[in-house]
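Re: the 376-residue chain
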Amino acid sequence: MSSGTDEDTPRVTTLELFFDLVFVFTITQLTSALFRSPNVHGVARVVVMLGVIWWMYGGYVWMTNAVRANTSARRLLLLGGMGGFFVLSLAIPSAFAGSGLAFALAYLVVVLVHSVLFTRATAVSAARAILTLAPYNLAAALVVVLGGAIGGRVQFVLWAAAAVFEWLTPWIRGTKGFVVAAGHFVERHALVVIVAIGESVVAIGFGASTLRIDAALVGLALLGLALSACLWWMYFSGHEGHGERALAALPVAERAWASLVGFGYWHLPMLFGILAIASVEREAAEHPYTAISWARAVILAAGAAAYCFGNALFRRTLRLDGARSRTVAGVVALATAPLGALVWPTAQLAALVAVLVVSFAAGGYESSPPPKSAAA
C-alpha cells in the first residue's frame, strides 16, 4: 500500500517542540533521581517511572501524528497534557517517598487528555482504535493512582505492573486502525532524542558549575562532550533521511507495528542509557580523577551498553545497516566498568569514546538508502 499521503503531512509544529521540551524535563528529573540513588533500588525505580512515562509520551506522538492541533480547543487540551507532564516531572524526585500520589494524579490527567484528543482524529479508523486502547491506558493509570495512594513496596509493585501491562497492550489488541505518517513520526522522535542527549552535556555543566576551571575539568568536559557526540552520531548517522524512507516504504499495517517496536520499545533502553550516562557524568565532573563507586561505574557502562543495544535493535527493525557494529560496541562497553571503579571516571569515559569511535570506523555507520518498495 502506498504511503503517498506522508508527503502531504505537515512536519512537527512549534507547539509539539514546546511539548517535547517539557517532556525532556522528566529525563532531567530521572537523571537526578538516579544520581541520588545509584543502587539497584534506584535503577529499578527509574526504569519503572521511565516505562510508564515513555509509554504515554509515545501515545502523544501517535496522537499528534493523527490529530493536528490547529484549533484553540485542541491547543488548550495539548497544553493541559503538557501541564500534566510538568507536574509529574516535579514529583519524580520523591515519587517513592511522599509525592507518589501527585505523580499518579498528574499521570491520570496525561492519559485522559490523550484519550480525549485522539478521538478528534480525522481518520475514522484511528478514532475507533483509540476507543479500544483508551480503557487499557485508563486501567493502567488507575493502578498507578492506587499505588501512589498506598505507597511503600506496594507502590513499586503496582507501578511496575502498570508499566508491564502498558507495554504488553499492543500484543493484546495489536495496532489495527492506526496509520503512521512516517515523516512526522521519525522527525518527532529524532528531536526528542537530540534534546535528551543534551541532558548529558547539561549534567557535566551542572556538576562543574561551582568548580574552578583547570586542565582536569576541561579534559573531563571535553570527554563528556565527545561521548555525547558519539551518542548523536550513533543515532543520526545514516538515519535522518534513510529512517523515514525505510518506514514510509513499509505497508501501512506493517508500518504501524514497526513504529511501535522501533520507536517505542527500542527507544526505551536508549533513553535510559542517556540518563544513566548523565547521572554518572555529574559525579565525574566533581571528581574527575577520583575513582567512583562500583555502582556508578556499572551504571555508566550499562547505560552506554543499553544505548548501543537499543540502537542496534532499532536499526534492525527499520532494516537499516549497522546493527552488528552497535551490538559489539555495547558488549565491549560493559567491560569498561573496572576503569571507573579502580582508576578514574575520566579513564572510563575515554574508553567508552574510544570503543564507539573504533566501532564507527570498523562498522561503517553510513547506511545505504533502503530500496524503494514497489508500492511506495
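The CA atoms of residues 54 and 268 lie 7 Å apart.
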